[in-house]
Design brief:
mainly beta; homodimer; 5-stranded antiparallel β-sheet; about 0% helix
């Protein structure tokens, strides 16, 4: 069997009423996912609170995240190439994504470790 | 502590006598790594034969890989946004990378699973 090559910009519909989630690779402990947003934001009052660490890369477009830290809520703006580790259970939400172009994210969710060499923990 | 944001194009020296490997996040079973090539290729006769699955994304630049499949050696050309799963122990090498611009890769190495829902195994 040959090697299956995908492209991060492939298969994106022109009109996106909802965000599009595409699993690119996974096993039981790791999931690599593409997310395409088109001006979407998290619902009012909704916060992600995840069981797994999430490493996220903003591939194209732009976004503003809110992240709950020890000292309060921090807003971070992400531009293409920006990446960030969001440790498990660090609450966060997407405040906004670009209104003028699609925003493509790459997210890697992972667990299965008791140690963590990169990133802070709350 | 605030959230540490990096950028995939950050901290790349102008002159790269060797490829540059930067670990962006890791735990004992997952490693997310940026690789920057500047016309580099694998040494003559060298083949990677890795213990872990590797999901690789070509972020910018271009490259040609050779991959050993059941039917022989397949050459694949990668352009920006192209991604590929290279299962553990699938031998492969980098034949070439762009001579005119730096090639930035994102590689996710992972293991710790007995099952594999994406990608083929040899």
């Amino acid at each position: 069997m040959g090697n299956k090559i995908g492209n991060l910009t492939g298969g994106i519909p022109g009109n996106l009423p909802e965000e599009v989630f595409t699993v690119l690779a996974e096993n039981e402990h790791v999931k690599i996912e593409r997310v395409v947003s088109d001006g979407h934001a998290s619902p009012e009052g909704f916060w992600y609170d995840q069981e797994q660490d999430e490493w996220v890369l903003l591939v194209s477009g732009s976004a503003v995240l809110s992240i709950v830290n020890e000292t309060g809520i921090e807003q971070v703006e992400l531009m293409p190439g920006d990446h960030l580790l969001i440790p498990a259970h660090r609450r966060h939400r997407v405040e906004s994504t670009s209104a003028t172009e699609k925003t493509v994210w790459l997210a890697v969710f992972y667990s299965c470790s008791s140690t963590q060499s990169t990133g802070s923990t709350v």
